[in-house]
Write a structure and sequence with these properties.
0% strand, 6 helices, 182 residues
Length: 182
């Protein structure tokens, strides 16, 4: 299999997983009448994929975001595309910052490296995705100015919770496997 074919398949897999996780999340929360969703597990998919694959996974993240927002959440195409911009750029840029601070890999050498990764992955990336998504919604005339701040907070918290609950334990487990040779 060529490198291009492998990257294509990885992007299709990430898009499918992002969409599936998003759709399942929507099914769970919509069935109990809790919308907007207070947690977004797909944020963990995005930061994890970006940490392992960098920019090469951006098309898969964008496609997964568009599919999830349009088909599962009912967003108009234009808004789904706008959301995809920051839901792709933020995790990839966050992953680049984390890896650069960590000497180019994913094995934490200090508490400071781990703290930096948490601040970037759990605070900065969710805030950027929220600014992109809610900013787009406002600019497209889909959200009144009076709801912008609370909407940004809700979005960022949902993405942060998804990352904390799913990505952080995964990376802690991976780190323990590397440190213990398992």
């Amino acid at each position: 299999m060529s490198d291009m074919q492998r990257k294509f398949l990885e992007n299709i897999a990430v898009a499918a997983v992002y969409w599936l996780v998003s759709h399942l999340n929507w099914l769970i929360f919509s069935s109990v009448g809790v919308l907007p969703m207070p947690i977004w597990p797909a944020a963990a998919v995005a930061i994890t994929a970006a940490l392992y694959r960098g920019w090469s996974i951006a098309p898969g993240l964008a496609l997964g975001t568009i599919l999830a927002n349009h088909f599962s959440l009912g967003a108009p195409w234009g808004f789904a595309f706008c959301i995809a911009v920051m839901n792709t750029l933020a995790p990839v840029l966050g992953a680049l910052l984390i890896k650069k601070n960590n000497g180019g890999d994913l094995h934490f050498r200090s508490v400071g490296n781990m703290g930096f990764a948490i601040v970037v992955g759990v605070l900065l990336v969710p805030l950027l995705t929220a600014l992109g998504g809610i900013g787009s919604k406002f600019m497209l005339g889909m959200l009144p100015e009076s709801k912008v701040v609370i909407s940004i907070m809700r979005w960022a918290m949902a993405h942060a919770l998804g990352t904390v609950i799913f990505a952080v334990p995964y990376f802690a487990w991976q780190e323990s496997r590397v440190n213990h040779g398992n």
